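Our preliminary data section would be incomplete without showing what the modeling component actually yields. Below, a chain of 378 amino acids is followed by its predicted structure, encoded as tokens that our downstream tools consume directly.
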Amino acid sequence: MGRHLVCTILERNYKNSKLVLNYMASHPEVKMANNPLPHPLVVCGMPRTGSTLLYNLLACDPACRALLYAEMAQPVPPLARSDTTGQMQRNNSLQGFREMFITLGLNGHLRNMRASHPQLPYEEDLYFLYHTGYNWLHTMLASHDDNELLMWLENDINKKFIYEYHKIFIQMLNSIDAPSSHWLFKTPYHTLYLDEFMHHYPSAMLIMTHRRLDDALASMSRSASVYAAPYFDNNKADTAIDIQTVVKRILHLLDTLIHRLVKFRRNHPYIPCFDVQYDDLLAHPINTVRRIYNHFNLSWSEEFETTMSAWLRDNPQGKQGRNSYTLDNCEMTLDDIELRYNEYISMFLGSQHSLNIGCSMTKSADSMIHSLESPSEK
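Predicted structure:
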């Protein structure tokens, strides 16, 4: 069953990439038009740090353009948001994937996935990067730790095609339904290739979300386990070993992501970036968004604020369920984290959140990470 799911997803993503590229090839006027993309506002940083909440609040701005899950899952033909009939038809046609989960007896897994990451109309642009073969979850499912897919994903060389496709995709949507102010992107996994991303979007306004690493790592480990579970046979005696392998691999990927984030900020101190603390966001969500808009000199409106208030009222934390997690599942301690990620903590989680360029990165003897040691980030 797991192989069937992987093959179904791979086939769908390949089909979508082919549809997008063929559409753009048959509409050369889209790329030739002298209509530069508005400066994008980009939520990145670490996963499980409140980025989904922040993204959905930012998407409440009627002057911006966030990505709908439906238009990434079924992108051709591109539809304007005002095309309510077309949007409804597309949403109905996308029920097939959910029905497949139910038919395969995976409805319980689907509920767990929604508890880990709620199902909402707006989604992160990672979903159409899947069209390029960029899929972190599939690296978790390979049979060997030193699998080629994981090594390719973590290597930041030769990723130009990913963001060429990203820009082509956005140009396609922009030609049908452009924002009056800016595009809004979001995925923590842009952090793996921020230099390449900024090459394609040099005017991007970056927002990086941060949270205590013991919470962020434990939460992401739990999330990866939940998303990987449908691919394994729960009747096998070694399923728990398979899931623990997923945890080990996601921690390795997060290790690469953290080091690369630190390297990017150290090397590019003058790129516009706004840091958001998880606790601040939860305590003062609308004020946090207001500070972001002030920082980037974006226009605020009463309609925007009213829509955010309504969204917060209608989507309380845990509405679609909750997943519990502890650091014990990661086989790491607070001391391990503080030693290995000293520079990240100094940069973003200290009292002043200032760049401490003189810090050195100390590696712990943590077995979960050293069994798959990261490539040098020097």
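DSSP finds 20 helices and five strands in the chain. Residues 245 and 343 are 27 Å apart (CA to CA). Preliminary results of this kind motivate Aim 1 of the renewal.
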